[in-house]
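Long-time lurker, finally posting.

We've been working with Homoserine O-acetyltransferase (Nesterenkonia halobia) and I want a structural starting point before designing mutants. I don't trust myself to interpret raw outputs, so I'm hoping someone here can both generate the structure tokens and explain anything notable. Sequence follows.
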Amino acid sequence: MTAQVPTTTVRPDGALAVVDVGAHTFETGGRLPQVSIAYETWGELAPDGSNAVLVLHALTGDTHVAANEADPEAGWWEGLVGPGRAVDTDRWFVVSPAMIGGCYGSTGPASADPQGRPWGSRFPYTTIRDSVQLEARLADQLGIERFHAVLGGSMGGARALEWAASFPDRVAGVGVFSCGAESTAEQIAFAQAQVAAIENDPHYDGGDYYTGPWPEAGLGLARRIAHITYRTETEFSARFGREHQGDEDPFGSSRRPRGRFQVESYLDHQARKLVSRFDPNAYILLTEALAGHDVGRGRGGAAAALRQVTATPFVAAVDSDRLYHPEQSHRLAELLPGAGGVHMISSPIGHDGFLTSPDQIAEPLRETLRL
Ligand SMILES: CC(=O)SCCNC(=O)CCNC(=O)[C@H](O)C(C)(C)COP(=O)(O)OP(=O)(O)OC[C@H]1O[C@@H](n2cnc3c(N)ncnc32)[C@H](O)[C@@H]1OP(=O)(O)O
Ligand SMILES: N[C@@H](CCO)C(=O)O
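Top reply, 14 upvotes:
Generated this for you. Predicted structure of Homoserine O-acetyltransferase:
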């Protein structure tokens, strides 16, 4: 990736709609003169606007929750969203926006400033609350006064929870998967290590690398760190054990590079995959936004903030999640009025289970959507 100034690294099929939501002053004080929010939709909005469901993506996710006419490729929550699914697109009008600061169509650090230069290092520190404020403006433009439900997992769960706390009158139901009331010290620590991996890449250039080589090694390292936290020791042992990759032999030579274990090859692959689809600056911005997640900040703490939530809650977690521990979801459910417990996904793979096995909790979610 060299000498190229993309406004976005968005899917190339043109399936996205993009709206101008105006200028934005960020929570921490930065300002952009104009922000665009990209989104996809499924189903039809009822004339009274009462059937809208907002679905919010995780850290490296995009707007493509499910297949649609414009883009028939399967989406990241295909098991939950679609015709006849728990979030039935024959009934609900589903809206899925790309988060501000990312690289899937909404304004992000690779977007051009009014002079045509990428924002790069000048893109403001972004919070989950910034994301929610801008999504509310998108809702205004779509004629949606109140969402029947706002749902999301991981960073999407943080955004959903912020929606319920920031706009109680605009959210009837809230679904928070694999995310607690605030990011924990350990989650912040893992995030910092990932950010440091990118910032220490010699090509990072303070974030203004768009006309030269990109800090791909740093982004790849960040993804390796993250991906380990998204999975489990149990899965890695069962899937890879100490097997060698193909005919590579870790002990075959005293010289580097040495042959790899299978799990090393797997991580190299995960790193390459993300590098091919993500902007390192966007990775930093979204990672720091999630690390900063705290629904109780400025609201007297999590308990006080969550007491004010009026939306019907649906809290879900993965039993083997070692990053967003199920205990955090239990605590969230205790604090959210009416939650009545956690819907548990049973999976050996850890955090990513909310993406790979959401169908396990489809029925209770369908029920909750009946409110
Ligand atoms: C292109 C886009 O727009 S993606 C946008 C949407 N993305 C998101 O929402 C992000 C969330 N999604 C994810 O994080 C992931 O897709 C998940 C968690 C849902 C699933 O993870 P995956 O990486 O697809 O699954 P898994 O861990 O089984 O890995 C499979 C991959 O590892 C590769 N692999 C397996 N073993 C090895 C090995 N020993 N060496 C090298 N590669 C290996 C497989 O070939 C496969 O490659 P492929 O993805 O290129 O086909
Ligand atoms: N694998 C997911 C996990 C983050 O919650 C992602 O890349 O977005």
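Before you design anything, note these points.
Residues 190-286 form a domain with the Rna Polymerase Sigma Factor; Chain: A fold (CATH 1.10.1740.110).
The radius of gyration is 20 Å.
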